[in-house]
Amino acid sequence: MTEETPEPYRTWLRAINDTLDEQVDETQYDNEIIQRMFEHIEQDSVTPQERARMFDEYGQEQLRRDEYKLGVAEAKLETARKMLAKGYDLAEVAELTGLSPDELAQLS
Question: What is the pLDDT of residues 5-16, one digit of tens each?
Fold first, then answer.
């Protein structure tokens, strides 16, 4: 933050910084939205470190889900390849694998 940073942004950045060290003088802030943010943080009673850990865990879970979805998609493609190689009809392969005709066209 510099002197060129517009005041409304500076106020928000100061408020965010204050919440990180858990030492907030709420009287310094007259913005109603910032006051509500402080109230939510207080009600939440989660420390910044706990919140960061929760975000990390959520991110890791998202990665696991994405990897699982990718694995399922790859398995479908591999099944479709084998079916097409054995002479299955394109429409039948699409129905059985759930792949679109466009996705199947890319396999051939």
Answer: 888 888 888 777
Which residue type does 11 have? T
Q: pLDDT per residue over 19-30, tens digit each?
A: 776 667 777 778
Sort 34 into a burial class: Cβ within 10 Å, 0-12 / 13-18 / 19+: buried
Domain residue limits at 3 = 1-45
Q: End-to-end CA distance of the chain: give it in Å, rounded.
A: 55
Domain count of the fold of the chain: 2
pLDDT at position 22 is 67
In angstroms, the CA 11 to CA 52 distance is: 22
Do the Cβ atoms of 84 and 104 come closer than 8 Å?
yes
Shared-domain flag, residues 9 and 24? yes
Same domain for 37 and 79? no
Residues 6 and 54 in one domain: no
pTM of the complete model:
0.46
